[in-house]
D-malate dehydrogenase [decarboxylating] (Mesorhizobium shangrilense), 698 residues
Amino acid sequence: MPSAKIAVIEGDGIGKEVVPEGVKVVEAAARVFGIDLTWDHLDWGCDHHARLGRMMPENGLDRIAGHDAIFLGAIGWPTVSDVESLWTLLMPIRRNFQQYVNLRPVRLFDGVASPLARPGAIDFYIVRENNEGEYSEVGGRMFPDTDQEMVIQDTVLTRFGCDRVMKFAFELARKRKRRLTSATKSNGIIHTMPFWDERFRAVAGDFPDIATEQYHIDILTAHFVRRPSSFDVVVASNLFGDILSDLGPAVTGTIGIAPSANLNPERRFPSMFEPVHGSAPDIAGKNIANPIGQIWSGAMMLEHLGAKDAAGAIVAAIERVLASGENLTPDMGGNASTTALGQAIADAV
Amino acid sequence: MPSAKIAVIEGDGIGKEVVPEGVKVVEAAARVFGIDLTWDHLDWGCDHHARLGRMMPENGLDRIAGHDAIFLGAIGWPTVSDVESLWTLLMPIRRNFQQYVNLRPVRLFDGVASPLARPGAIDFYIVRENNEGEYSEVGGRMFPDTDQEMVIQDTVLTRFGCDRVMKFAFELARKRKRRLTSATKSNGIIHTMPFWDERFRAVAGDFPDIATEQYHIDILTAHFVRRPSSFDVVVASNLFGDILSDLGPAVTGTIGIAPSANLNPERRFPSMFEPVHGSAPDIAGKNIANPIGQIWSGAMMLEHLGAKDAAGAIVAAIERVLASGENLTPDMGGNASTTALGQAIADAV
Ligand SMILES: CC(C)[C@H](C(=O)O)[C@@H](O)C(=O)O
Ligand SMILES: CC(C)[C@H](C(=O)O)[C@@H](O)C(=O)O
């Protein structure tokens, strides 16, 4: 019987509500397909910070390094500054474990109302660079508390970093409809984005069978609204991928269902699976958060662990429950609870 | 009789097609309201570059500095790299003339089909910081042509630059529904965006009558799609404003109608008025581009020049022509030409 050891970090806010549903559904699928999962629960996050002054223990990364995967809810709570909470937990995991691909599917399901008048079939992937780019520690502040105060933030792109994520995106497109869109802004941003385009052209040379297109991020957001059906795989820098992966799910009805996989494709380090949404303090504690983003992230985790059938069973269960129109959470126009929707999907598995 | 001297730069691509329509309509309004306009046509752009090796003459800025306003079409053509064409013409004008506010209205007109199922009334302004931020010359490349190749781009925010554009946005909100939304990304971008939030809070202190909200740029794009009716004024950094001001008009049907005003509010330097769309090489030369972005920019120019009635007459004419459903260009579902639509609006004025 195949087995895997999973580090679970519920984190903050609705993370604590959706993770148990994710675990429940993944466990259900694991039982059906005879997979032996060990769940190692870690109480890291802003509560941990309140008690111990840090988001995770000093040796936190070591403690999860030996796991096969990390199953994360959401990080962030008003008691800790965002920069601190995210850059001492989420970002170190993404960076240190070289999870340089953030893979985010965008799909319109039957039963979920899109805000668009004529959405058509929507089914594409965003491949977000997840280790460098606009997210960096480099920069600082000068002349604090004076009228001359200023801050600088460095965006850093490397050939190594661009090429590896682009290669992943081309390979994914090759398994799909062989169309890859690159998000750029080389008409306005001088040093980094023309380089991004250069690397995109260079890597494309190895994939002559993939049709490519490039759009500036501003107009690309317009295309997401006007022709979301036309995308297959979209590759983007860290920030642009972050933006597009909220916009894409919004166009399909709710970001509550959007999952993500922070992948270390070489499997040298554990990969991490988390919903696209955050800790949502405004709805936390009410048992109304949509658990599908977390559950679908669980399916991506099983797929990454080699349990393709179990992963497929979860996605099929999500599809069936959504199509039934029953047990939908408020963000999808229903009035079911987080636990009711989670249970319905577990039952459907 | 009030008078003004305007520098006209058609620029490239569809700029050459929409600017004449803009001039035609603005002239029509000027005649009705007794305003004496002098149009100083400058053949700057990529053709100028082909002939003379530069986008504009060396003393270009001096040549337009004495004008009351600049009426620009679009810049950029495949024969010149984007970085060169934009950073030797558009950007120097925005920067040197301290056009630090890029004001971009977003409005859903009767007669234009929004891609949204239930759009509701949409009528808000984006106030984009236009002089600093993510658009900067600072940065560079190391280890070219090696596997270690990397690039760095500096985003620069100053207290001076943030405060003045935020103040403008608060003042605009005060003339409207007293609601201001700030676009940020302080949970992911360490040095600049937390500073943006700090300055927003500080400036907000002087405007206790304005209700404020702050959203991370990723989720804000989702809100643009899901509740565009709820915005009044949105203030954003250079890049975030760029993105939001394509997305907003896309949600209202077409970015072809979106105008912009690059304002130097102190009027020390001329302000510049240009559509949000670019030179659109794919449809250039076909007489099918939507001239409304340019025409509406002309109305914003008249308003800035103090001719409020003439500006209002143009917007009313645009409204009437759109509502009639006649003379619409292909981007709005019609089959009229650029010139036919421009003429219809001029006649309606
Ligand atoms: C052409 C480009 C540099 C420009 C910008 O990004 O400012 C355009 O997109 C705009 O919105 O005016
Ligand atoms: C919480 C935040 C730092 C994070 C990001 O920007 O990466 C989130 O928005 C995401 O998309 O995973």
User: Anything to note?
Assistant: Residues 15-32 of chain A form the longest helix (18 residues). The first strand of chain A starts at residue 3 and ends at 11. The mean pLDDT of chain A is 97. Chain A touches chain B through 65 residues (CB under 8 Å).
